Amino acid sequence: MExxxxxxxxxxTWDLTSFFPEFNCLEMLDFKRKLGSEISQLQAEASGLGAxxxxxxxxxxxxxxxxxxxxxxxxxxxSYIACLKSAHADVEEYxxxxxxxxxxxxxxxxxxxxxxHAFKGASDDAFNAFLARESLAPVAHPLRKLRxxxxxxxxxxxxxxxxxxxxxxxxxxxxxxxxxxxKLEFEMLYxxxxxxxxxxxxxxALMSDADREIGRAAFEGGNKAxxxxxxxxxxxxxxxxxxxxxxxxxxxxxxxxxxxxxQASITRETLDAMYQAIHDNIEIGREILxxxxxxMGRSGIWWFEREAPxxxxxSKLLAWEQGTEMAERSFAATxxxxxxxxxxxxxxxxxxxxMRPNKVPGAFCTDSPVTKEQRVYMTFNGTLGDVTTxxxxxxxxxxxxxxxxxxxxxxxxxxxLAETASIFAEHILAEGIYQDEGIGQTQxxxxxxxxxxxAAVLLLDxxxxxxxxxxxHEERQNGEVSxxxxxxxxxxxxxxxxxxxxxxxxxxxxxxxxxxxxYNTGVSFYNxxxxxxxxxxxxLYNLFRQQxxxxxxxxxxxxxxxxxxxxxxxxxxxxxxxxxxxxxxxQAIQSLEEPLAQYKELLxx
Length: 605
Fold this sequence. Notes:
The strands form two sheets. This protein has a three-stranded mixed sheet, with helices on both faces. The protein is built from 24 helices and five strands. It is mainly alpha-helical. Helix content is 65%, strand content 4%. The chain has a domain at 26-175: Up-down Bundle (Butyryl-CoA Dehydrogenase, subunit A, domain 3), CATH 1.20.140.70. The two termini are 22 Å apart. A hairpin with a 5-residue loop joins strand 1 (185-189) and strand 2 (195-199). Helix 13 packs across helix 15 (384-403). Mean pLDDT is 93; it is low at 1-7. It has helices at 26-47, 57-87, 92-120, 124-131, 140-150, 156-183, 203-207, 212-228, 230-251, 256-264, 268-280, 282-295, 320-334, 336-347, 384-403, 415-435, 441-476, 483-498, 511-514, 528-547, 552-561, 567-575, 582-590, 593-604; strands at residues 185-189, 195-199, 351-352, 364-368, 373-377.
């Protein structure tokens, strides 16, 4: 595989000056001071109001409106700090600022405690009358969610204590993991004997190299680095899940999945329906990987190459300009409004993609309800996979862009629906590439390969993460889980889900350590929403293929509803489907059989 243009720096850096002119400038310091002061003042005011009732409704209405404003400003600050610390993991001031922000967040959570107890103590009649007030009707759904959450709260004093302990306990473990992984390096021993010390942020791209020996070397070198910190990872993982389980017990939450389902805004019936369809049709995902392995003369793949492209002789890496132009042409061919936004996004310098050391691994999209702007973080190494990652994150950004005119509370959508928008954008990218006459057949085969193997990852790899996390929580309820047991659970789960599509002995026993998502304290079970979003996006995309451009306004209506109802109702209201039935999900999975047949034909040509 050819390297990208050596004389050009890969990727770009973003412009964050619309957040604040510079870090810790007077404007930022004043913003933080006012925000902290107003949180404390409103917290004190709310603590004296008592339960929501007819006579206190005007005062609580004011508290809700001010809380919404404070949350928007807190999100603005949080997004800014997240951008800085991810792009510069070696700058201690950013990590320290994150710690200070966590303390402010704890004070905000104490304000939410007052709202929770006000809603918990309200009668149904008083609460329904409250939602009918003119200023609150547009955010009735998030307020109902808050009341549902209120039913599982501890005493006011216990909730306030939990908020304080989150700063130096629960969330501190996640911060430790992020800082450690951001600084982690591994020795890359190339097949020609050359050695280089690489930041872990480049590990995934190297594992996914079309040259399988480079991928194997990266996998082995990276896992040696993860093995050196496996005890820290296991301690953090046990602490995070242990804290959750303890809180659930005191909050009256019966099952460890209940909080994840609440956050995802779906029912257990819907989740079970999706996984029934996945297990009933699991051979489709396995057959994708077996087909790829057969082309390489093997019966199955190695774990580390599940995202690696086909080893095509005339494959090549892309320069940043080539990757961005490819995405723009693809969007323009199938979804002009997305292409227009994407061009504005790039021109505004809202993306950080430069390949350099001291960047946290991974990619994300964040936004500010204050400026109504979005930002995307990633590392561009020149692969088609990186172009897909960019499209994925821009899909998130476009979703936020569509919602920008709504109230901040109505812009808060669950991860299940967030991933739908991002994966829909991936499908739009792929469709545009297939239609682009300026793109050669080799690259189109690469995209089809990426598309199908991405589907296999979402059906199999993400299911591994979900099943592993369930098994881990089952055992964690009885005490800490050792490093050796974590490895056993991970290998057994990979073996069971991938079946014969995964070569015996090629499993990754340290995947629980290297996967950032397991250490996310904001969302539990940070896995099944990806599969959920993929399959829902596939269902939406199938409608788009059937109806053409006339479907896009309906799709944007779907996006607009995402923060205003349950997921089941959003889908029912926008496309008239019942997602609590396995048949809905099975149809989306089975729609992969057509591109799989095309894949087999091209590989055998």
